[in-house]
Amino acid sequence: SYGWKAGVSFVIGVSLSDSLYVALANIASGWLAGLMSHEKIIGYIGSALFVTIGLYGFFKKIKVTRNNRDMATVKSSDYWKIFSSGFLMNTFNPGVILVWITSVAAISTMSNSYRLFFFGSCLGLILSLDFLKVFLAQLIRTKLTPRIIVYLNRISALCIAAIGIFLFLKILFDIKIGGY
Predict the structure, then answer these.
(1) Are the beta carbons of 150 and 63 closer than 8 angstroms?
(2) pLDDT digits (tens, 9 = 90+) for 81-138
(3) Sign of the C-alpha dihedral, residues 2, 5, 6, 11?
(4) Fewer C-beta neighbours within 10 Å, C or N terminus of the chain?
(5) DSSP-assigned states of every residue in 5-74
(6) Cβ contact 15:130 at 8 Å
């Protein structure tokens, strides 16, 4: 609704938040490595959270409204607000916190150069995909009816619940994936 410049502002805010989480989690990696001794308890709690969030998202009633205007007008001072909203939405998202802390904990024993390459690649890929979504959004906007958006939200919620169930089963049956 606000155009590609607003989308880019939002994405840069999200990316800055992700970068800060990665930096803070890597600084605290020694402490996070100590948490791995409680891997089963953390895994059970995490799987319960994923299943709960997934089921809530699936059964939650959502109402999607369509913006009747093609493009909303944005003043140049609004870009800072849009950037800030992207930063704050990502910063206070518990899923983002879980993903980055889990990622750092999983590779906390690796060398600094490996971690720098790993997280640089992850952040670069996420930023690139976010930019791609911004530029493709206008193309798919007409195809995303409110009904399709509801279905996509439900499918996403089921995927989150499935990840939680998989995590629970992985810990319960001590399934090793990729040597971890």
Answers:
(1) no
(2) 999 999 999 998 877 887 887 788 777 778 889 989 999 999 999 999 999 988 888 7
(3) positive
(4) C
(5) HHHHHHHHHHHHHHHHHHHHHHHTHHHHHHHGGGHHHHHHHHHHHHHHHHHHHHHS-------SSS----
(6) yes
C-alpha distances in angstroms, 19 versus 97, 98, 112? 12, 14, 16
CB within 8 Å of 112: residues ≥ 6 apart: none
Q: Are 97 and 25 in contact (CB under 8 A)?
A: no
Distance separating alpha carbons of residues 58 and 155, to the nearest angstrom: 8
Tokens for 116, please give them. 């720098």
Residue 103: closest CA among 126, 83, 84, 86? 126
Distances (CA, A) of 131 to 4, 12, 108: 9, 9, 29
